[in-house]
Structure formats: structure tokens, C-alpha cells
Amino acid sequence: MSDNNQLGHGFLGSINHYMSDAMTYLDLPEGLSERILQCNSTYTVKFGVRLRGKLFSFQGWRSVHSEHISPVKGGIRYAMNVDAEEVEALAALMSMKCALVDLPFGGSKGALMIDPNEWEADEIEKITRRFTQELARRNLIGPGQNVPAPDVGTGEREMAWIADEYVRHAQNDVDARACVTGKPLGRGGIDGRTEATGRGVQYAIQAFYKDDAMLEKYGYEGALRDKRIVVQGFGNVGYHAVKFLSEEDACRITRVIEYNGMITNDDGMDVEALKSYFSENGSFKGCDLGEYSEDVSEGFLIDCDIIIPAALEDVISEDVAEKISTELIVEAANGPISAASDKIIQDRNIPIMPDMFVNSGGVIVSYFEWVKNLTHIPFGLMDRRSRVRNRRVIVDAMETMTERAFPSDVREPFLAGGSELDLVRSGLEDVMLSAYERISKVMHDDPSIKDMRTASYVIAVSTIARAYRELGL
To answer: pLDDT tens for residues 248-273?
Structure first.
């Protein structure tokens, strides 16, 4: 690792630091390191929309970090605290993320400086459609060029508007709906996309606790069951992650932190009941599922087993990093730990599962949706009946041999052959586990690589470098 005085400043500085650090483990040709570090392009778009009887001006960005492979991929966020540097950092992280999990995308990201809460739904639609027009005019969106997705402040609704507007722009493009992912099911989306990032977080944590060599490295024993989990951010990602971990892995969700307060219960909390209360009230205040506090400044300073930051960047300060008490930190958000805080935590021998791996579930399932849109064939359509017939043969043979009928609650799901959601979850799990195995192998093969973040960046940078070399650069 670099010395403290060489660490990057800010989110972009941290990512550049991680990439540069990874490059010290690789023998790259002269000039290639700089090419990988640089962001290829960042476009600023400014446009006006007539709303409420007057013209309002808006500013947005679309950044492309690396085009070593096309198209490029990355979400669009709606927030007031965004700028070009943050968008470039997120685009670079997308390049690393796609390379790590072996997806055929370069990295991109977009943002619009807007507070969605200040506008009505029909106004947000007009703004989104105008933003899409500006992107389309500059070839910053398209199924073979640049494919956005949801991010902070956006979701299925905005993606449906973007897709519809792009289809109007490219009426002769039969693949036009593949211009964006994260769409509603009825508009070309895919089952399982909404839960994808949270589900990926679960698969990442499961992989860690099944890795005996990794557990031994950190001196840990035991399985995932009954682990005490703290999550910061109870939106789509944080909610789905702790929902699956509590329901399927018997973990205890002991603290949930939001921007306006937190709730704590050492015995664990019912995630669905908590989500219902929060959705209805916008806060945990008054909820009888745990102890409420408005002061979240020490939200991470609780004895627990797993901490999942699932909100925004740079939420774990250096001061918190020195005091944090947990056996695993799982970065479900992008960049929740700065390079300086990362070094403190690593020096304390607390493992960090890095964002570029942990929250890749969204882009993985986005890839499935993109492929579905390009092939114009629903997942499983071509072989579903064949699988059902083969399974029926197996069931009939077993019933004949045992002279007993299969229980109906086992027989029917087995014969169904798997829904689109089943196939998406299976594919997501396979990609996540394969990526984790590569991370673990790099650390095993090179003992000088001591943490999962460095291993992840080494894999990603080497993948991009190989692509550039194959292009003759």
C-alpha cells in the first residue's frame, strides 16, 4: 500500500489510488497505466424545461471512463450534491466492476442535478424526457453505445420514460429498448432486477463465510447464521440485502441507520415490519421494534459482526475507522470508505468486501436484461418445455422404483422447470461466486496481496489492460 501522504483525496482520488496501487502488482507497458487511469470523456449538458408557467434550467453529466469494450454501462442518479468529478469517479468504478465480474461493458455514469422531491411526477417525466433527448443528440445513449440504468434518485419509472423517449428518437432501431436497463417488466425489464444488488450483497457475504481459507486468514470461526448485522441505508439495496440475510440465513438485524435517525435491537428486528413502518412514516421515530435515536453520528460504533454501508460515498470517516468494532465490512454502496479510512481498517486486520464486487449484482442482472432485449426472447423460452419433459421422466422413474408418489409440494415446483426469476437468481449467484473465487485465488497465489480490494482491482486492471493490448495499444 502507498503511504498515507500519497493517498487520494475525495471519491475520485480514492479510486485512482486503488487503481494505481493495483498497477504496482502488474507489469504494464509504458503509458498503459495512465491510459487506464484517465477518464475518456465527460459531457456536460444544460437544457431548459417549461414548468409551472416558466422556464427552468437543469444541468447534467454523462461520463465515459473506458471504451476498451462497447457498449459502456452505468446508472443515472438524480441528486443535488453531484458534480462532474463524482460522475467520473462512478464511471471509473463501473469500468472496474464490469471487468472484475467479466461483463462485456466499459464503464460510464450519469447524473442530473435535481431534487426529485421538489417536483411532481409529471414534471419529473418532462425533465427526464428532455435529458434523454440531450443524451441521444450526443450519442450518449444507445443499445450498442451507452446503456444507462437506475441509480440514486431514479428507478423503473424513470428508465421507462428514458426508453420510450429513445424509441421515439431511433424509430428504425429494432433493438432500441435495450438502450437502458432496469425497466418495468411490462416495458422490457427482467424479473429480479429490483432485488438484484441486494441479492448480490447476500451472495457475496455467503461466499466469504464459506471460504475456509479466508476465515482462517482473519482468525474467524463459525457460519453466517445468527450474525449480528448493522446496515446504513434502508433503500432498495440495504432493505433487500438484510431481508434476504435475515429470512434465508437467519442473521439478526440489530441496527438500521437512516439519514434522519436509527433504530437498534440486539435481539434482531423483523425487516418487513420495519420497512412497512419506515415507508409509512418516513422515519423510525415511534417504532416499537427497537430503540430509536435521532443522533446517527456514532451509528457504526456498535459491537456487531457485519456492517453494511448501503447509502452514499465516504460515510466511514478516519475517526470511525479507528473505533469500529466488527469482523466484516461489506460495501453495498459505492465508495463508502475513503482510501485513508480503508488503510486504517486494513491495518486493524478487519476485512472489507469492496464495493466493486459487492454491489455488482445490479449491473450483472442489467446485463441479463440487455441480452434479453437484444435477443427478443424471454429467458428460458427455448428450452423450458424440454426441461419440464426431462424432469417428468425423472419423477416418473423414481415413483416407479419407489412405488410412492412424490409429495405435491415438491413435485409441482420441480416440474415447473424454473421461472425467469429462478434463472436470473441462478445466473447472478454463479457470476458473483465466480468473481469471489477469482478474488480469493489472487490472494492465495500472491501473499503480498493482503486484502480483497487490492485483489479485485488487480483482476479488473489486468482485464482492461489485456483488452487494450489486444487492440494494439
So the answer is: 999 999 999 999 999 999 999 999 99
SS3 351: coil
Query: Could you tell me the CA-to-CA distances from 135 to 82, 112, 128, 138 in Å, in that order?
Result: 18, 12, 11, 5
Q: Is 109 a catalytic residue?
A: yes
Specify the pTM.
Answer: 0.91
- All 3 cell numbers of residue 55? 422556464
Q: Which of 127-131, 193-197, 207-211, 388-392 has the lowest mean pLDDT?
A: 388-392
Residue type, 24: T
Residue 150, amino acid: P
Q: Round to whole Å and give the CA distance between 450 and 442.
A: 10
Would you mind telling me the total number of residues written for the chain in this entry?
473
Q: Alpha helices of 259-407 — where are they, by DSSP H?
A: 271-281, 318-323, 339-347, 355-358, 361-375, 384-402
Does the bond joining 378 to the residue before it have cis omega, within 30 degrees of 0?
Answer: no
Q: Is 48 helix (H, G, I), strand (E, B) or coil?
A: strand
Say which residue the cell 469471489 belongs to. Answer: 436
Residue corresponding to grid cell 408557467: 53
Query: Which of 428, 425, 426, 446 is CA-nearest to residue 436?
Result: 428
Cα separation, 236 vs 216, whole angstroms: 33
Q: Using a CB cutoff of 8 Å and minimum separation of 24, what contacts does 321-325 make?
A: 321/345, 321/348, 322/348, 324/300, 324/350, 325/301
Q: Determine how many CB atoms are found less than 10 A away from the CB of residue 57.
A: 8
In the set 54, 73, 97, 109, the catalytic residue is: 109
Whole-number Å distance between alpha carbons of 203 and 361: 9
